[in-house]
Design a protein that fits this description.
heterodimer; A: mainly alpha; Ferritin; B: GMP Synthetase, Chain A, domain 3; three-stranded mixed beta sheet; elongated
């Protein structure tokens, strides 16, 4: 596969799978305002997906559009990080997952605004503004609930303990990341590693949460080698309509 | 025959935003350019938010309005860069939003006052609201909730 296409799949699939996950809250959030906020964040992410996967399809040149890539690929073709496919569980896990992703996404998109590929740079500039807004909210929520009541603190600590091992993959460079960074198209993830964990640790400290004492990181999502069992279930629900009624339109 | 571009701009400033009809698409700042390419009118439109569902309706409304004026050859061009910003809202838009009950965006962050009773005692309920471009606030004096057009 063209490395640029594969790289765009990583960007698009992160936004798509997280957008799908977050949209599962629609109608179920603990408060109306949170319901609306989560639905809006999911909407932003799906919008970003359309841009990334749309460009991936164009560069690939096989006539696949963003919808085809979203609805007609199977698990092993997805290139999202493991973090975003983790189940919602409770509101604490959902918001911790969002925070760990937003902190990364804001840095990644900011760096991508300097991409030599002008279309990638334009999409990144557009999405970066939205990512900063999401990060504002998820940071505030993590701090508010972490440094909140005994119960909310315990739930946020549980969420962090559960998700911490999925943060590392986001900023761990592999061969494709390095190739794309070298070409001036992608982001130098090695350079994002430190700022990412600094941002995350600073917010978690304000939230009075204890960062797990391990550097271990589950990997295999963005390379497509080893997704968790959850991704198949997401695709089953997300792709059902296009699989059962190929080409169905609104 | 090429209609003067100033007429095109006038026509487009009569096309309301589909979600906030108090302001026009020109007020919203999403129409970035209009230009003739021989007998084809090219309209450059930028989305507000990447996932805003109004984007496709905006495209349709622009096309419908121009066809109604007798322009048959229309090409809509999507432009992402530079990304849309609330700085592009017209001066009129700020007044129209406020009169409509939506607090206009302010770079300082947060509404200046309640669009209903003008009290400055306002508080944020949520960073998000009924459309991607708005947040929910509440007035602590008249107790009315209201939309704030968030700054981006």
């Amino acid at each position: 596969m063209d490395p640029t296409v594969e790289y765009l799949l990583r960007l698009g699939d992160n936004a798509l799978i997280l957008g799908q996950r977050v949209s599962e809250w629609c109608g179920h959030a603990p408060a109306l305002e949170e319901d609306i906020a989560l639905a809006n964040i999911a909407l932003d992410l799906i919008g970003q997906t359309q841009l990334w996967l749309g460009l991936a399809g164009e560069i690939e040149g096989q006539g696949r559009n963003a919808d085809d890539l979203a609805f007609l690929r199977d698990v092993y073709d997805f290139r999202n990080s493991l973090l975003v496919e983790q189940p919602n569980q409770d509101f604490a896990v959902t918001m911790m997952r969002q925070f760990l992703f937003d902190a990364f996404s804001a840095l990644q998109l900011d760096a991508l605004t300097h991409s030599k590929n002008v279309e990638i740079a334009a999409i990144a500039a557009k999405c970066h503004k939205e990512a900063l807004y999401h990060l504002d909210r998820s940071s505030e929520t993590v701090i508010g609930l972490g440094d909140g009541t005994d119960i909310s603190h315990a739930k946020m600590q549980n969420a962090l303990d559960r998700l911490w091992v999925y943060a590392g993959e986001l900023v761990s460079a592999d061969d494709l990341d390095r190739t794309m960074a070298k070409a001036g198209v992608g982001v130098d993830l090695d350079a994002l590693h430190t700022p990412y964990f600094e941002t995350v640790r600073a917010t978690l400290a304000t939230a009075t949460l204890r960062v797990p004492d391990t550097d271990f990181a589950h990997k295999g999502g963005k390379s497509g080698q080893r997704h968790s069992e959850h991704l198949g279930h997401i695709l089953t629900s997300m792709q059902w309509l296009q699989r059962a009624y190929p080409g169905a339109k609104w | 025959m090429q209609t003067p571009l100033s007429d095109i701009w006038t026509w487009l400033s009569d096309v309301p935003d589909p979600e906030i009809p108090a302001i026009s698409l020109v007020d919203l700042g999403v129409i970035r350019n209009v230009a003739w390419d021989n007998d084809t009118l090219e309209v450059t439109i930028t989305p507000t938010y990447a996932g805003c569902p109004a984007t496709s309706i905006i495209n349709l409304d622009v096309e419908t309005a121009l066809r109604a004026k007798g322009i048959d050859n229309i090409r809509l061009k999507r432009q992402l860069a530079p990304p849309w910003t609330t700085d592009w809202l017209s001066k009129d838009a700020h007044q129209k939003l406020e009169a409509y009950g939506i607090a206009p965006p302010r770079p300082a962050g947060g509404p200046q006052h309640c669009p209903q009773c003008h009290s400055a005692m306002v508080e944020k309920i949520s960073q998000f609201g009924s459309t991607p471009c708005k947040a929910q606030w509440r007035c602590k004096d008249c107790l009315e909730p209201f939309d704030y057009f968030k700054c981006i």
